[in-house]
């Protein structure tokens, strides 16, 4: 079955992504031509299927490790598999094609837990360590659900899923993974390009001028929209799930005292490779922050202005601490291209521009450079799946800290 697909010059692939914002499923139908490493990809159709409210609530309840249980986890793994399969049919239909016209699916799944502890476990063993030796090693773990076998069964085509665990098994953070495809699609001969994704979490990729794959580095910058989304949800009693266009934040004033405290979070002092998630900046974090804000009589507008400034600050701080010096030596970065839902928040973009332009960096959005911001991550998982089908390495060691190259993605035939 795979030989037949591998022999095709052009593969039609559906990439699926549902991110840390838990807003829905992004599906991208693409055509990939030539070698998976050529980066020759054409977007045929894109669709976003928002999660029904009750599904969103069920996913969010899984983030609460004190109350979530294995029964819910098992159920949601299959339910999400069904919803992803439905999303495949939907984007194929939108493209005016039939399911049989697609060769395979690449599905990220839904992250429900991410614990990127540095792995001290010996990678290859001549003999398995004793129980006491094993207990003294630490290892990272991560969990993405949305069963690939269900997607393959419903669609009748192979599905590549569960990418992150292979990188973690060789000591990597298992995140971020999109830099691999950004290297294939965005690198430039004449300038250094910075790609900032602002989803639930923010992450940056540095593509040095004329870089080789080994020179690319990337890491999570901290919260993207997660804290802003959480605060507006609490301030409006669940009426609003995000600050459309950043309009609420635009009316507020930044609370400097609170911002300073937020900036002192330990995550920002950690050196890359690093990745984060809801475990650090999720419900517990923004609920505590909300209570603190209420105690200090901070208005919703000022709260949103402060959280928006915090995200902008985390991007500038990441640049100053971990990128600037290296890139000045090389030739200096000249472009920061912003993607993800945060790129539609005009107040946030304005704040990032104010902070980054003094470094001589032009701030653009994915749309400004001719790409589709919404489709980017779904396209990336189609490309990562294309490598997996071809048996090609698709992790980036410098980005994740993995000890060796691996082929990420499990194939359900
Ligand atoms: N028009 C808009 N105005 C302001 N913010 C917006 C707008 N549209 C989307 N967003 C923000 O973008 C978020 C969704 O972003 P995105 O889909 O990139 O996240 P994700 O892929 O779930 O996250 P991650 O990349 O961390 O996995 C929303 O929760 C919201 O905060
Ligand atoms: C564990 C996990 O799901 N991480 C996500 C999250 O959302 C953004 C950032 O944190 C990034 O590290 C990653 O997603 C993108 C798709 C990535 O792997 O590149």
Please describe what this structure looks like.
Pathway: Cell wall biogenesis; peptidoglycan recycling; Amino-sugar metabolism; 1,6-anhydro-N-acetylmuramate degradation. By secondary structure, this protein is α/β, with parallel strands linked by helices. The chain folds into 2 domains: 1-176 and 374-412, 2-Layer Sandwich (Nucleotidyltransferase, domain 5), CATH 3.30.420; 192-332, Nucleotidyltransferase, domain 5, CATH 3.30.420.40. The protein is built from 17 helices and 13 strands. It binds adenosine-5'-triphosphate and ligand AH0.
Low-confidence stretches: none
Strand order of the largest sheet: 3-2-1-4-7-13
Tell me the series of helices and strands, N- to C-terminal.
HEEEHHEEHEHEHHEEEHHHHHHHEHEHHE
Tally the helices.
17
- What is the approximate shape? globular
Topology-level CATH name of the largest domain: Nucleotidyltransferase, domain 5
Q: How many domains, as an integer?
A: 2
Oligomer: single chain
Report the count of strand segments: 13
Keywords: ATP-binding, Carbohydrate metabolism, Kinase, Nucleotide-binding, Transferase
EC number: 2.7.1.170
Organism: Anaerocolumna aminovalerica
GO molecular function, one term: ATP binding
Question: Helices, strands, pairings?
Answer:
Blueprint: H1 2-6, E1 10-17, E2 24-33, E3 41-50, H2 53-62, H3 70-94, E4 104-107, E5 110-115, H4 131-135, E6 141-145, H5 148-155, E7 159-161, H6 164-169, H7 179-186, E8 192-198, E9 201-207, E10 217-223, H8 226-235, H9 247-250, H10 256-263, H11 278-281, H12 283-295, H13 300-322, H14 324-330, E11 333-339, H15 346-356, E12 362-365, H16 376-390, H17 397-400, E13 410-412
Parallel strand pairs: 1-4, 4-7, 8-11, 11-12
Antiparallel strand pairs: 1-2, 2-3, 5-6, 7-13, 8-9, 9-10
Bound molecules: adenosine-5'-triphosphate and the ligand CC(=O)N[C@H]1[C@@H]2OC[C@@H](O2)[C@@H](O)[C@@H]1O[C@H](C)C(=O)O.
Pfam families: AnmK
Protein name: Anhydro-N-acetylmuramic acid kinase
Catalytic activity: 1,6-anhydro-N-acetyl-beta-muramate + ATP + H2O = N-acetyl-D-muramate 6-phosphate + ADP + H(+)
């Amino acid at each position: 079955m795979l030989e037949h697909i591998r022999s095709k010059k052009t593969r039609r692939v559906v990439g699926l992504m549902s991110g840390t914002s838990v807003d829905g499923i992004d599906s991208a139908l693409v055509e990939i031509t030539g070698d998976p490493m050529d980066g020759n990809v054409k977007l045929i159709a894109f669709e976003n299927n928002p999660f029904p409210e009750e599904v969103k609530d069920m996913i969010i309840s899984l983030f609460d490790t004190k109350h979530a249980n294995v029964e819910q986890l098992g159920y949601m793994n299959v339910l999400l598999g069904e919803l992803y399969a439905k999303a495949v049919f939907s984007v194929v239909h939108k493209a005016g094609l039939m399911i049989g016209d697609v060769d395979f699916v690449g599905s990220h799944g839904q992250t429900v837990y991410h614990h990127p502890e540095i792995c001290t476990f010996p990678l290859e063993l001549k003999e398995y360590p004793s129980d006491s030796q094993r207990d003294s090693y630490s290892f990272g773990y991560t969990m993405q659900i949305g069963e690939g076998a269900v997607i393959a069964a419903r669609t009748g085509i192979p599905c590549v899923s569960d990418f992150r665990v292979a990188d973690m098994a060789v000591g990597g953070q298992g995140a971020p993974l999109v830099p691999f495809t950004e290297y294939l699609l965005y690198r430039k001969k004449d300038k250094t390009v910075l790609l900032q994704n602002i989803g639930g979490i923010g992450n940056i990729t540095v593509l040095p001028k004329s870089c080789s794959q080994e020179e690319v580095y990337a890491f999570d910058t901290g919260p993207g929209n997660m804290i802003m989304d959480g605060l507006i949800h609490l301030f409006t009693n669940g009426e609003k799930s995000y600050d459309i266009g950043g309009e609420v934040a635009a009316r507020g004033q930044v609370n400097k005292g609170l911002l300073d405290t937020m900036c002192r979070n330990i995550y920002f002092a950690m050196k890359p490779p690093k990745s984060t998630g809801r475990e650090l900046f999720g419900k517990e974090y923004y609920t505590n922050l909300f209570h603190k804000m209420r105690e200090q009589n901070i208005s919703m507008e000022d709260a949103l202005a402060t959280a928006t400034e915090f995200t902008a600050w985390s991007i500038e701080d990441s640049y100053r601490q971990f990128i600037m010096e290296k890139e000045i030596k090389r030739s200096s970065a000249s472009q920061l291209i912003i993607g993800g839902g945060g790129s539609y928040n005009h107040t946030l973009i304005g704040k990032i521009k104010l902070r980054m332009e003094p470094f001589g960096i032009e701030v653009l959005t994915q749309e400004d450079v001719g790409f589709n911001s919404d489709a980017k991550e779904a396209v990336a998982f189609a490309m990562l799946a294309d490598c997996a089908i071809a048996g090609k390495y698709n992790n980036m060691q410098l980005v994740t800290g993995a000890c060796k190259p691996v082929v990420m993605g499990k194939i359900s035939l």
